[in-house]
Amino acid sequence: MYAENKLFKNLPEQYLKRIPFYHQILSELALKNEAYVSSRYLAGFFNVDETQIRKDISLTGYKGKPKYGYSVQGLKEAIEAYLGINYHNTAVLFGAGKLGTALIEYEGLADYGLEIIAVFDNNPVKIGSPVGHFNILSPSALPRVIRSFDIGIAILTVPKTAAQEVCDQVTAMGIKAIWNFAPLQLSVGMDVILRNENLAAGAALLSYYLKKSNHRQEGP
Amino acid sequence: MYAENKLFKNLPEQYLKRIPFYHQILSELALKNEAYVSSRYLAGFFNVDETQIRKDISLTGYKGKPKYGYSVQGLKEAIEAYLGINYHNTAVLFGAGKLGTALIEYEGLADYGLEIIAVFDNNPVKIGSPVGHFNILSPSALPRVIRSFDIGIAILTVPKTAAQEVCDQVTAMGIKAIWNFAPLQLSVGMDVILRNENLAAGAALLSYYLKKSNHRQEGP
DNA sequence: AAAAAATCGTGATTTTTTTCTCAATAAGCG
DNA sequence: CGCTTATTGAGAAAAAAATCACGATTTTTT
Question: Are the C-beta atoms of B101 and A102 separated by less than 8 Å?
Answer without folding.
Answer: yes
